[in-house]
Amino acid sequence: MDEFALIRRWFAPLAPHGDGVVLGIGDDCALLAPPPDEQLAITTDTLIAGRHFPLDTAPADIGWKSLAVSLSDLAAMGARPYGFTLALSLPQADENWLAGFAEGLRACAQTAGIALVGGDTTRGELSITITAFGTLPAGAALRRDAAQVGDCICVTGTLGDAALALRLLQSDGWPQTDAARALRARLDRPTPRNAAGLALRSIAHAAIDLSDGLFGDLGHVCDASGVGAELSIADLPASPAFTAGVPTDARLALQLAGGDDYELCICVPPARLDAARQACGALPLTVIGRIVQGEGVRLRNGGGAIVDFSTPSYRHFS
Amino acid sequence: MDEFALIRRWFAPLAPHGDGVVLGIGDDCALLAPPPDEQLAITTDTLIAGRHFPLDTAPADIGWKSLAVSLSDLAAMGARPYGFTLALSLPQADENWLAGFAEGLRACAQTAGIALVGGDTTRGELSITITAFGTLPAGAALRRDAAQVGDCICVTGTLGDAALALRLLQSDGWPQTDAARALRARLDRPTPRNAAGLALRSIAHAAIDLSDGLFGDLGHVCDASGVGAELSIADLPASPAFTAGVPTDARLALQLAGGDDYELCICVPPARLDAARQACGALPLTVIGRIVQGEGVRLRNGGGAIVDFSTPSYRHFS
After folding, report:
1. How many angstroms separate the first and last alpha carbons of chain B?
2. Cβ contact, residue pair A121, B316, below 8 Å
3. How many angstroms separate the CA atoms of A50 and A126, rounded?
């Protein structure tokens, strides 16, 4: 099957017209007509087998996660998902793999109401690059450079689940338990927080999505905003599966630097905390610290003492 | 050097603010404010070492070509270049390589006035995915589905240069001549025809850029427009270097199916041919055939007889 037939067969169902998509896959470019007077938020992420997902990951989960990580970036800006392009490199045109991948991609796209508008398929090491577009009113974006001293630092959901799953996978003997499966699902099928991001747009001062680990990602907020952060490590939210399965000495590293959480970290003025909680609906929002004067991220234990933490976030080429 | 430092150091100079770029590299998303009431044209292309460019290609030429192929797609729609994202996979963080790559990318971006607005850097097989955005008034795009019976089929520039360069490279003994260097430059540094594409927007009925070879690419125009095409093979434009160096029996295959030309193929009503030539300025525009009723691309020799041609365009996974 040639490149063109591949694209048509597996990805055409993801590319509806209408809703601002003037021309989808099939010409030199796609044509979009974004809502008038809105700005565009754009993000690009590459996922490579064995680096951004375990080699044994199911094709449907790879499809889901490839889009979910970009949707998470749109969520962190408070942008409404609009469209995406897919650049897919494959060692060979495996129909079973493509069927699974397209199904996972479609499922994730459907939950967010985002359309595939273009792409490229080529032979190479398995690699997926998605560029996603969202729309939002001018000046409405949740940026990482607008945290203010006194803001409550909050995170959605729980931290460390995906990192613990990866650690268990890399150790001998993956436990065949419901808890382990729950952790693996968090690694393979992260839930981008787009509804929360949209609802928080007029409430939070700043936001970032947690892809590389809270410690490093919050550090970017501090750097960009010219502020410091103090975190209370006793308040970091954890799932029951995480709490049950994590070795005590690994807990902090996994929650702060494990990466792959795809939760939102937001900075909210204390007076808007209730509004922020309401904006998140059923999704838990936990206060984990405060924005302070100074620079960098400091940690305090339950007793208020400073805790040393020097494990860096996951970084390529480091 | 870590991922973040890499991006800042080499690519920050390509990411100017202003001109509709509200927020460039450094947040979860870039923010763009496209011209009000204009549509967006979007295209994605992946280049992989040894597949889309020879393994010995200079890093600066890889940088140039990576963006040029996307600019060529924008040219074919008649869209004004606006911004692009870069997803770069590298086996290792080689500073010399990055310096060259960024310089070539910058040079190409500068000629087109297009800004880098976001990206991702990861470790892997050398692979470059660029998603480029252009803007154009609603309804103004040059599409491939609007060719009309009677249109003159025209191409800009010359055909086959890059394909001959690749053939010479793959044979024993690359000739150290000015002609060979000229051919290699056409392979390594294609010139996207953006000025011509913009100027032809109100003149041509349809357009496509020639990336996979005229025969296949024009076939896409025929399929999308529900028409056929007749080409006069004696009229295919060739450079002096191509004419001097091409083996007679390879000429047609290289000009029709070699790929990597990055010229525009446009369908123009005969009454607008002079206007089309003027729109192209110093860039030669050659009439090579006519749009006819029916389907598919037929070839005729200088005497008017049908010529059989069955070499397909370059296709991945074929």
Report:
1. 40
2. yes
3. 9
CA distance B18 to chain A (A): 14
Task: Count other Cβ atoms within 10 Å, centred on residue A36.
Answer: 8
pTM recorded for the entire structure: 0.90
Span between the terminal Cα atoms of chain A, in Å = 40
SS3 A10: helix
3-state helix, strand, coil in chain A (%, to 5): 35, 30, 35
Backbone angles phi, psi at A173, to 5 degrees: 80, 80
Q: Which amino acid is at A41?
A: A
Angle between helices A95-112 and A59-77 (to 10 degrees): 30
Between the alpha carbon of residue A190 and those of residues A43, A51, A64, A187, A260, the distances in Å are 17, 16, 8, 6, 8
Q: Cα distance from A142 to chain B (closest Cα, Å)?
A: 9
Q: Tens of pLDDT along A40-83?
A: 999 999 999 888 888 889 999 999 999 999 999 999 999 999 99
Q: Is A301 helix (H, G, I), strand (E, B) or coil?
A: coil
B 212-271: CB under 8 A from A: 224
Distance CA(A128)–CA(A49), nearest Å, equals 9
Give the mean model confidence (pLDDT) for residues A6-34: 73
Q: Which string of DSSP letters, residue by residue, matches B12-67?
A: GGG---BTTEEE-BTBSSEEE-PPTTEEEEEEEEEEEBTTTB-TT--HHHHHHHHH
Nearest to B42 among A4, A32, A129 (CB): A32
Record the tokens describing residue A83, joined without a space.
């469209």
pLDDT at B305 over 80: yes
Other beta carbons less than 10 A from residue A27's beta carbon = 25
By mean pLDDT, which of A307-311, B60-64, B182-186 is the weakest?
A: A307-311
Residue bearing tokens 């209730």: A274
B 6-45 near A (Cβ less than 8 A) = 6, 22-23, 26-34, 36-37, 39-45
Tell me the C-alpha distance between B241 and B164, whole Å: 10
Residue A307: how many other CB atoms lie within 10 Å: 13
> To probe the interface with B, which of A6, A10, A29 has the most B CB atoms within 10 Å?
A29
CB B188 within 8 A of CB B47: no
Which residues share a beta bridge with B47?
Answer: B128
- Residue A250: CB atoms within 10 A of its CB come to 14
Closest CA in chain A for residue B45: A120
